[in-house]
């Protein structure tokens, strides 16, 4: 599947019958390569020694890849380092905690080494994402058409059994609620995503576990970021799932995602502004 889905929180920007809008000729390969050279990938990792090497080898050349070890008890850190990643350690368990540690390291690199980082790419360490499809996420950023791009597994090709039914339902429910509360037309909370570094700073991300992805998408709406979705493919992960593969993990993640949605919808100072009965926040 190819193309990009762009959204406006009030109306669809591209009024046509197709959900897919092809990239224009201005989004050149040269511009994409330049953007990749200014991109840092952040990969949270916990006991992924059988998959992290495959993930790192499949990524296109980037400015830097930061693997955040979140307490592995196997040789995952050694494998990641052996495949060229910068490995840092975050002892506090949690997906969001690992992502925040990776962001802090990216900021340190930019400040101390004067790196010209413009974009941050997030993906998982279990090889369920297709790292070679990072180009799909980076093209809208490279062209300036978007500030944040979500890789939608719902719009891509999924291997049978890659997403448990409870995960598919949770994604649908969260996206439905975002559409009801913020007029957002996201179809997925997928971890494979890219965002401008300056835009990510404005979001002031806080969540340290299961609410990380939904917090980013809600705050993107509330801050008026130009957002887009692109279809990405998804396959069975290598190794056992630590969240959707267990009843406890699924319940914890589901609770935190719903809590985050209602927290930002009704908390003081975080309720989206409205104009003429429609949300003032635009994605597209």
Description:
- The protein has 284 residues and is of the alpha/beta class.
- Helices cover 37% and strands 14% of the residues.
- The protein has helices at residues 29-36, 52-58, 76-82, 95-113, 134-142, 165-182, 197-203, 212-222, 247-266; strands at 5-6, 39-45, 64-69, 86-89, 119-122, 148-152, 193-196, 227-231, 274-275, 278-279.
- Strand 2, helix 2 (52-58) and strand 3 (64-69) form a beta-alpha-beta unit.
- The radius of gyration is 18 Å and the shape is globular.
- Mean pLDDT is 85; it is low at 1-23 and 269-284.
Keywords:
about 280 residues; alpha/beta; eight-stranded mixed sheet; two-stranded antiparallel sheet; about 15% strand; disordered N terminus; disordered C terminus
List the helices and strands and how they pair.
Elements: E1 5-6, H1 29-36, E2 39-45, H2 52-58, E3 64-69, H3 76-82, E4 86-89, H4 95-113, E5 119-122, H5 134-142, E6 148-152, H6 165-182, E7 193-196, H7 197-203, H8 212-222, E8 227-231, H9 247-266, E9 274-275, E10 278-279
Parallel strand pairs: 2-3, 2-5, 3-4, 6-8
Antiparallel strand pairs: 1-8, 5-7, 6-7, 9-10
Quick summary:
The chain is α/β, with parallel strands linked by helices. The protein has helices at residues 29-36, 52-58, 76-82, 95-113, 134-142, 165-182, 197-203, 212-222, 247-266, and strands at residues 5-6, 39-45, 64-69, 86-89, 119-122, 148-152, 193-196, 227-231, 274-275, 278-279. The radius of gyration is 18 Å and the shape is globular.
């Amino acid at each position: 599947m190819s193309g990009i889905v762009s959204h406006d929180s009030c109306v669809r920007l591209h009024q046509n019958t197709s959900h897919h809008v092809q990239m224009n000729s201005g989004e050149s390969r040269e511009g994409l390569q330049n953007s990749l050279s200014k991109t840092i990938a952040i990969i949270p990792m916990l006991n992924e020694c059988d998959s992290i090497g495959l993930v790192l080898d499949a990524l296109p050349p980037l400015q830097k890849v930061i693997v955040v070890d979140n307490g592995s008890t196997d040789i995952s850190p050694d494998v990641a380092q052996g495949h060229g990643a910068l490995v840092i350690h975050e002892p506090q368990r949690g997906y969001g905690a690992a992502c925040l540690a990776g962001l802090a390291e990216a900021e340190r690199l930019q400040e101390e080494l004067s790196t010209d980082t413009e974009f941050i790419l997030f993906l998982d360490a279990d090889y369920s994402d297709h790292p070679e499809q990072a180009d799909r996420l980076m093209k809208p950023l490279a062209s300036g058409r978007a500030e944040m791009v979500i890789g939608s597994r719902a719009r891509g090709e999924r291997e049978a059994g890659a997403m448990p039914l409870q995960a598919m339902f949770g994604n649908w429910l969260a996206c439905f609620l975002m559409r009801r509360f913020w007029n957002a037309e996201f179809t997925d909370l997928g971890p494979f995503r890219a965002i401008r570094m300056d835009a990510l700073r404005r979001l002031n991300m806080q969540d340290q576990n299961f609410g990380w992805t939904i917090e980013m998408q809600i705050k993107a709406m509330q801050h008026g970021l130009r957002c887009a979705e692109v279809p990405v493919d998804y396959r069975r992960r290598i190794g056992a799932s630590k969240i959707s593969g267990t009843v406890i993990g699924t319940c914890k993640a589901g609770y935190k995602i719903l809590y985050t949605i209602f927290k930002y919808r009704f908390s003081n100072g975080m309720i989206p502004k409205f104009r003429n009965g429609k949300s003032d926040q635009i994605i597209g």
